[in-house]
Amino acid sequence: MSICFLNNEYVLLSEAKVSVLDRGFIFGDAVYEVLPGFGGKFFALAQHLERLNDNLNKVSIDPPYSSKEWEELLATLSEKNGNSDLSFYIQVTRGVAERNHFFPMDCEPTVFVMCTNLKSSSNPLIKSCITRSDNRWGRCDIKTTSLLPNLMLKNEALLSDAFEVILLKNGMLTEGASSNVFVVSKGRVKTPEVSNFILPGVTRDFVLQVLNELGITCERRTVITAELFDACEIWLTSSTNDLIGINLLNGKPVGNGQEYPMLERVSSAFTEAKMRSLTS
Ligand code: PDD
Fold first, then answer.
1. What residues contact residue 147 under an 8 Å CB cut-off, 6+ apart?
2. How many CB atoms lie within 10 A of CB 204?
3. Of 41, 143, 190, 274, which is the active-site residue?
4. Beta bridge partners of 173
5. In the chain, which residues have pLDDT < 70?
6. CB of 167 closer than 8 Å to CB of 133
């Protein structure tokens, strides 16, 4: 059983408890992060902590720790879990208070961090996707735990034997229910620019850096639906799965549904750059 961190204590995950009045439980009044760690070294730690702080600011929760304190906490948790290859989940809620829609004035944030074993897989994974209308709220830039719309969409994918839902808003691509999206068509790589309709993915940024190092231009701009359906390659990016290639979109092959030359090139450069960049 793994050890987690809850409000300044390291405890068995099965024994960690929070109050039913926690605003994370009552309202989903909380933000979160997910980042991978390999043998006690972390991927894009500074970027994940920066996004966590940005999100805490956006929802007016006081940051509970400095970056240095977060780093120490994560290192300790990694060590207590045998420094294996782990995915770390950080959640900060506004804390425990009487139920009231107004933000309470004097609330101590609840801080919870757990880790799960990372599944090893051969890169890049190839999966199928469906598309759906993006019916989420207008602040998808905030990594909040209020994920019910994403869960409903993701479960539509499951019912269609697909891995992910690619979301479309007003004729434009936004992102996946739990990933960012890149499309390749006519030899060009494109991804939607960050806005309040997508999460500024840490993996997305890293892929942009890798593309730049490879001398491949990526257009960061509005991607219209037709460009998605005409793509010869579609990639998903996320901290849990790195880069994934899509072979089927709504049951139809993407490109010839079998070859991903650009993805293979970018994916191997990504893995090398990722391993080089790990920090303790
Ligand atoms: N999700 N967009 C959404 C809606 C996401 O939920 C995620 C990641 C991403 C990719 O972000 P990043 O590259 O920083 O992981 C984009 C995580 C992994 C999750 O909810 O478990």
1. 28
2. 25
3. 143
4. 168
5. none
6. yes
pLDDT of residue 231: 98
Give 221-264 pLDDT, tens digit per residue. Answer: 999 999 999 999 999 999 999 999 999 999 999 999 999 999 99
Check if the beta carbon of residue 62 is closer than 8 Å to that of residue 116. no
Distance CA 66, CA 70 (A): 6
**Can you tell me the distance from the alpha carbon of 68 to that of 83, in angstroms, rounded to the nearest whole number?**
19
- C-alpha to C-alpha distance for 258 and 255, rounded to whole angstroms: 8
Residues lining ligand 1, Cβ inside 6 A: 34, 175, 178-180, 199, 201-204, 237-240
DSSP letters, 121-141, are: -PSSEEEEEEEEE--S-S-TT
Report pLDDT for 108: 97
> Pairing state of beta strands 218-220 and 3-6?
unpaired
Ligand 1 atom nearest the C-alpha of 202 is 14
Q: Is 143 a catalytic residue?
A: yes
Structure tokens at 209: 């850096």
264: which 2 tokens? 């293979």
Q: Look at residue 175 in the predicted model and tell me its pLDDT.
A: 98
CA-based nearest residue to 112, from 26, 201, 33, 56:
33
d(CA 50, CA 52): 5
pTM: 0.97
Phi-psi region of 156 (alpha: psi -120 to 50; beta: other; left: phi over 0): alpha
Strands 3-6, 9-12: pairing is antiparallel
pLDDT of res. 266: 97
Sorted by where each starts, the structural domains of the chain and their CATH numbers stand as 3-117 (3.30.470.10), 127-277 (3.20.10.10)
| Residue whose tokens read 């926690």 | 22
Residue 203's identity, in one-letter code, is T
Q: Whose CA is nearest to atom 20 of ligand 1?
A: 178
